[in-house]
């Protein structure tokens, strides 16, 4: 196997792992939403004039995951690596926990929204970090 073939193979594994991570993040958010729905928790945020539904959960997880993936790729190509990405991702996750509070969610709705943020965020942090380790940086050790 040539170096180019090895690089392409690792790149394909990294892409596949990243896509699976995005799907797992969506599933994590949807599972929490489903549990809340089965528990008859009203996911309406009156101050924001919005109801949190499965489509919005999936959309936010996919957009956030796509942005996280893109940032990881940029930082890795710039030579900053996974450590910088993990630190940045952790900061973004912590800051994102303010969004449900600032939107006016209260009580059980606030708890469910925060749980979804944590589940989706941790899934992305762990999964994309592991996928990033499949990249060219490990090619040298192959």
TrEMBL record:
Stated name of the protein: Uncharacterized protein
Superkingdom to which the source organism belongs: Bacteria
Residues spanning the membrane: 20-41, 53-75, 82-102, 108-128
InterPro entries, A to Z: DUF6069
Swiss-Prot/TrEMBL keywords: Membrane, Transmembrane, Transmembrane helix
Organism: Paramicrobacterium humi
